[in-house]
Amino acid sequence: MNRPDTTFEKIAWPIGFGLAVLVLWEIVVRGFGVSPAILPAPTAIAAAIRENPGTLWEDWVQTVLKGAVNGLWMGTLAALVVALIIDRFDFLKRGLLPVANFFAALPIVGLAPIMVMWFGFDWHSKAAVVAVMVFFPMLVNILGGLAAVDPMQRDLMRTYAASHAQTLQKLRGPAALPFLFNGLKIATSLALIGAIVAEYFGSPIRGMGFRITTEMGRLATDMVWAEIVVSAVTGTALYGLVAGIEKRVTFWHPSQRG
Amino acid sequence: MKKPVIDAQGVDLTFQTNDGPVHALKDVNLEINKGDFVSFIGPSGCGKTTFLRCIAGLETPTGGKLTVNGISPEEARKARAYGYVFQAAGLYPWRTIAGNIKLPLEIMGYPKSEHDEHVRKVLELVDLSGFEKKFPWQLSGGMQQRASIARALAFDAEILLMDEPFGALDEIVRDHLNEQLLQLWARTEKTIGFVTHSIPEAVYLSTKIVVMSPRPGRITDVIESPLPKERPLEIRDTPEFIEIAHRVREGLRAGHDA
């Protein structure tokens, strides 16, 4: 009864459940004659994906590669630089951090129309929204990580007469990595949301958010759902990628030793 | 000429806390000569760790005169005059045992070509040869603490300061490590400052036992041990040993009643 699941079972259970949901969905849509405008059947969504690979690919490149990924690295890099500066100067820790926390609480997606005004309709304004969305959670996590070293470890570095840079490089940097990856996992899903939603406020005639709004206007919900499927797969893959890198880089952390 | 390695004259230290000033050390006078093994013993709050931290330049006395090798503890710290062993091993989990021992060498700029030789030498001293490639979390608590002693020895400082290094270990492991520490001391001829709250440990290890008492932290007795340098564990059953232990206990009690 209490033996742990085998690898096969670990994979088979969720796949079985997922398939059961899809079958039920198909049965309900066909059985009750649900209008495709309200909810298309899974087979209809699959057909839409099969018939429009070119469009879906173009939208994916525009939204994920250009918007989300660019915004993600820009926001993360900016957070890293600002975190190192705040960490170096105590008065910034006291003055800037509360301000950062205030901004972190704002619904950043609301900035999207302003970013379109500033950076134009193309992916640059989307990347800007993503960068701002990603910036604050990354900043807070990195600062938390840099502060996570216990006093004894700092004293040890002092007994070596280590410089600030050496302490950062040898001790506090590595110790902050698990926090950085926690932030990155939050940031990847935020980046995808930001890049899609930002397109609702104006975009060129491609992109996942653009497609969702225009196809919805034409009541072509199978295509809307096709984009949602693509974004779900993308989000899972990005998360998996970050988790995979995390496992290799922070193998020493109790949460990864397994 | 024989000048003391560590010379304390009327050392005073008052911490300013939110609950008002705390008198941690009062009029501490002590001379430690080259090659001495000095134990500091007393109840918690007696300032034994604080005094060791003063010697290490991690705390600064608010009064009196304290020199290490004839210079201030701060200068001695910057000159890397001592190795420090903390209560916990505090090894970096992302570095192997060899990597941990190389840490001070990297910070102090030892040539890379010499690193392996230093690691080999100190691991042999603490009887951990062959564990170079293990990670700290793969070793027992006693082995971790031995690795942390190896780390403190890696850069050949003449003074070794140890703050209750075996406090968290069980009695059997502790006996074994005490025996090893004496051998190590005999081979390296270092000057050792050792904080403990175990009477047998202090008497077994030391050439000089400093008995301290709290509120304010001060020295109540300094005992020069008549025990020979060669000390098998059985020496703890001899009348001489028991007599010194008795005197330490008397000193602790006197401080407690005052």
Automatic annotation (TrEMBL), chain A:
Record CDD domains: TM_PBP2 (cd06261)
Principal location class: membrane
Membrane-related topology note: Multi-pass membrane protein
Keywords: Cell membrane, Membrane, Transmembrane, Transmembrane helix, Transport
Name of the protein: NitT/TauT family transport system permease protein
Pfam families: BPD_transp_1 (PF00528)
Cell location: Cell membrane
InterPro entries: MetI-like (IPR000515), MetI-like_sf (IPR035906)
One GO BP: transmembrane transport
Organism name: Celeribacter neptunius
Residue ranges annotated for the ABC transmembrane type-1 domain, each copy included: 75-250
Membrane-spanning intervals of the chain: 12-32, 67-86, 98-121, 127-149, 179-203, 223-245
A GO cellular component annotation in the UniProt record: plasma membrane
UniProtKB/TrEMBL annotation, chain B:
Domain of life: Bacteria
Keyword Transport applies: yes
Family: Belongs to the ABC transporter superfamily.
A Pfam family reported for this protein in Swiss-Prot or TrEMBL: ABC_tran
Molecular function, one GO term: ATP binding
Residue stretches making up the ABC transporter domain: 8-235
CDD domains: ABC_NrtD_SsuB_transporters (cd03293)
Name of the protein in question: NitT/TauT family transport system ATP-binding protein
SUPFAM superfamilies: P-loop containing nucleoside triphosphate hydrolases
Species this protein is from: Celeribacter neptunius
Keyword vocabulary terms for this entry: ATP-binding, Nucleotide-binding, Transport
